[in-house]
Amino acid sequence: MNFVNKKVVVLGVGISGNAVAKLAKELGAVVTLSDSNAEIAKKYDLDELRDCGVTVELGPQSDSLISGIDYLILSPGVPMAVPLVQKAIANGVEVMSEVEVAYRLCKVPLYAVTGTNGKTTTTTLLGELMKKIGTEVGVGGNIGVALSSEVHRVGEKGCVVAEISSYQLEASSQFNPHIVAILNVTPDHIARHGSIDNYQKVKEQIFSHHTKDDYLVLNYDDARVKSMAERANSTVMFFSRLHELEEGAFVKDHWLTINWQGKSYKICTVDDVKIKGGHNIENALAAVGVAFLAGVGAEAMAQVLKEFPGVEHRIEPVTTIDGVGYFNDSKATNPESTIKALEAFTGHIILIAGGHDKNTDLTEFMQLIKEKVDELILIGNAAARFKEAAIANGITNIHETGYSMEEAVKLAHKIAKEPQIVLLSPACASFDMFDGFEERGRVFKELVYKLK
Fold this sequence. Notes:
The chain is of the alpha/beta class. Helix content is 35%, strand content 23%. It has 17 helices and 20 strands. The chain has helices at residues 15-26, 47-51, 83-90, 98-105, 119-130, 147-154, 166-170, 190-193, 196-204, 223-226, 278-293, 298-307, 335-343, 363-372, 383-392, 405-415, 437-451, and strands at 7-11, 30-35, 55-58, 71-74, 94-97, 110-114, 137-141, 159-163, 179-182, 215-219, 235-240, 248-252, 255-260, 263-269, 316-321, 324-328, 349-354, 373-379, 398-400, 421-424. The strands form three sheets. A nine-stranded mixed beta sheet has the order 7-8-6-9-10-11-12-13-14, sandwiched between helices. Strands 15-16-20-17-18-19 form a six-stranded mixed beta sheet, with helices on both faces. A five-stranded parallel beta sheet has the order 3-2-1-4-5, sandwiched between helices. Helix 1 packs across helix 6 (147-154), helix 4 runs parallel beside helix 6 (147-154) and helix 13 runs parallel beside helix 14. The longest helix has 16 residues, at 278-293. The chain is globular and about 65 Å long.
């Protein structure tokens, strides 16, 4: 992709937008970074971009912004449906996402992970696995590091591992990772995509350019994901935690095992995997499937799985106070993710949940709460709907602390007794109270440490 003397507008200040604006400028473009929210400057230091020669425009966006430009690059938070974007398309401007730019600039193999839940853990683990073959490894995308930055940093040596969200795929036309893992598809981001079927179609764009020379690693245990094999031109490898597969990555006699092209490879036992919970065995199977296809050996993969501690904000042990363990699962931004966290424990849970409500179905979530949760503490704007659903499912030990995480943590500490554990797993986005799940998780941890 050639940026020399091209006129480029990047829509959306943020990790991705800021990075791709800086990179495009460095590669010779005339760049304007625009955001309709004038207050965004309070969150990001934009002086570095200005010093690099990027024009920063905040506030109302007029049609003149896209007049005569070559490329319009979208941050993940900017939908294709925005009128200014639609007008640019009508005017013949090429519109693309930041990860599309990264792909077009990428000079090394690209391996991608997508799905509703488990992406960050699987992507981070895959990055560690790829380091075992001695290459320079970039890890970016929907993981707090812009993919375009990592692609540029890695250059022509090694590989890049990408966590990819539906938002990033929406404005991607050529994006074609060589190996893709799809973990699961459950209701999420429905407000943006309109329905779970539309959401799935966007996810499937990630392998739309595949040929038999590319690989697609699919969750055999997820019906929606399993069905993608019928629409893929890729070479498919299934992974399964629940079934022994004739070919693929699966669990047999308590061993993570890969059968492929007539050969069988034993990786390590389920108990050897340091990250615990059934969902993390699924994540591990997906990661080793991709790593195996990329050339990582079984022994090297076993070493990583025995040592990998997991990622921040995903069932992260914080500390123990008076025999009660505290766990930060702020990354759980939908009920399905919180269900996986609840399933990782035997019971006796004090659960802190709630936040910015995605209005997803709560039936299965509440049924599991009734089975495993001793006390339910609700916060944020989802509290009222969550409480109503809890009562409808026969849950009685319900508490509300409004928009105060501090009061929620204090209350949990007051009522929790050994062998109970305190788990922050909100099943909601965070934007009613925090800038993101990362801030929510760190505030929770700080409050817990203060108790100690």
